[in-house]
Design a protein that fits this description.
mainly alpha
Length: 81
């Protein structure tokens, strides 16, 4: 079962519980626990659907041309000593 199916099932369960609680068929004592269960289902669906960020390996950038010129000048200065 993939993540989208699990999330869809959790959201359907949350909607059914929400409709049941809004219809008035539930005892007033159970309203808050059922709302917490609904919140838990929705947060779990979000957690299931979140995408993991992949760390990309950064390639070392080629230094600008000015850096090469400066290195050449510095090496010529050291060779001249």
């Amino acid at each position: 079962m993939n993540a989208q199916n699990v999330a869809a099932i959790l959201l359907y369960m949350a909607v059914i519980l929400h409709l049941l609680s809004m219809s008035g068929w539930i005892v007033a004592k159970l309203t808050q626990p059922i709302q917490l269960v609904i919140l838990g289902f929705m947060l779990t669906a979000l957690f299931v659907l979140r995408k993991k960020k992949r760390k990309t390996k950064r390639r070392p950038r080629k230094p600008p041309v000015e850096v090469d010129v400066m290195l050449d000048r510095a090496q010529e200065g050291e060779a001249g000593k």
